[in-house]
Amino acid sequence: MSGKSRTFRTSHDAAGHRVSKPDPQERAFLVGIEYRVRSRPKSGASAGRGSLTSGAQAARDSAAILTAASQTPSAPQFSAEESLEELRGLALSAGARVVGEFLQHRDKPDPATLIGSGKLEEIAGAAASVSADLLLFDHDLTSSQQRNIEKIVDTRVIDRTQLILDIFARHARTREGQLQVELAQLEYLLPRLGGRGIEMSQLGGGIGTRGPGETQLETDRRKIYRRIRHVKEQIENVRRIRAQQRQRRESVPVATVALVGYTNAGKSTLFNALTNAAVLQSPKMFATLDPTIRAVTLPSRRKALLSDTVGFIRNLPHTLVSAFRATLEEVQRAALILHVSDASSPLSAEQDAQVEKVLKELDADKKPRLRVMNKVDLLPPQQRDSLRDDPQTIHVSAAKGIGMSTLLDRIDQMLSEDAISRVRLRVPQKEGKALAMLEAKSRIYSRAYKDGLVELEAEAPESVVRRLKEWIVAENP
Fold this sequence. Notes:
This protein is of the alpha/beta class and about 475 residues long. The chain has 4 domains: about 10-165, GTPase HflX, N-terminal domain (Rossmann fold, 3-Layer(aba) Sandwich); about 170-235, no CATH class; about 255-415, P-loop containing nucleotide triphosphate hydrolases (Rossmann fold); about 420-475, Alpha-Beta Plaits, CATH 3.30.70. The protein contains 14 helices and 17 strands. It has helices at about 80-95, 115-130, 145-155, 160-170, 175-190, 220-250, 265-275, 320-325, 325-330, 350-360, 380-385, 405-415, 430-440, 460-465, and strands at about 10, 20, 25-35, 50, 95-105, 135, 155-160, 255-260, 290-295, 305-310, 335-340, 370-375, 395, 420-430, 445-450, 455-460, 470-475. The strands form 4 sheets. Strands 9-10-8-11-12-13 form a 6-stranded mixed β-sheet, with helices on both faces. Strands 3, 4, 5, 6 and 7 form a 5-stranded mixed β-sheet that branches. A hairpin with a 5-residue loop joins β9 (about 290-295) and β10 (about 305-310). α4 runs antiparallel to α5 (about 175-190) and α5 packs antiparallel against α6. About 40% of the residues are buried.
């Protein structure tokens, strides 16, 4: 770890004198890597040219939940430039100011420094020229690689997974979210304890150094293992409480609808638009970590529960998916999944492919699903006018309230819980509670008063029909 002091920015006072003030943001220099992977020779002039893939994660452990898009030939791929752009968004979400970036092209990773000592010297000079406080690598680093790089560049070095963990630590608000982030941090850091040097001797401030806080990570592995066991027990208690709450909910015929999607697709904005909740809406990545469930009233007057979940991302660290499994169980048990996509993003197809991989890992890829293309207000008018909904896709703008009624109608049609039926009833006028229930929980198509009775034709959920069966004259499914 570098012993650099805090950076200062120079400004001028009213008299024109130069004044140095501490820079409130850490200055980050981004480093991306693209590996040239040779494909099999093809016939014709293109034979032997070799193809470029978005292999910034080619050396990553295949056990990771979201592997590099290039490993699935049929899936859309992120280019190295697009991957670096996403890293820039992550850095901003972590509170950094990006002051420079570098994209390295290599045939294969260097086992000692990932990109080679010569390029590191060049990067060190570029980072020093802009007074960078840290280097952010768009790649996972081993502990030895990180240590070797820090020796050459004399600057703090953070890899992509550590950056994501830091953002999660910054945004976790509930005790449950903090526990899950702490578990992910501990499991990430445990194999990296050896040789981390001075960085592990203290829990300092700044991006990538927000440790779990309750266990000094420079202690021996036995202590770390004990802390991991303790956190896992607490998370298991969370899962047990969630299961009990879910069991109580499932005893009532109310369906759960889970919002899933790539980070920053607008899930929380859509959640607020549908439920009138006040969940944090932010353009920053991973603004929502703690799950929120709210009731929503459908056009049929049925109730449904809407669940907002953590956003997904390319190469989401395996430790995070494992740690957040208690939260993601809401997706596994949902009656309907709303897959929210950013219609305005040029990377929409690539992002959707990554969400599909996570849903498959959660065994939720076969569940009933509705694609919600959000942010259509950001599209050019001509493109927006050409959009057409179909049985699997709805186009909306949660921020502008466009398409909300259509979306609620489609959700209503796709849910089978507490099925709707059309009935004719004769209810005595003195049965005020029954009439109030019909008014609140059904669609009434006709109403007539005769001989102290109220004759109605209505569409009502099965749970309401069951309570009014003594006054039903006729019932049509």
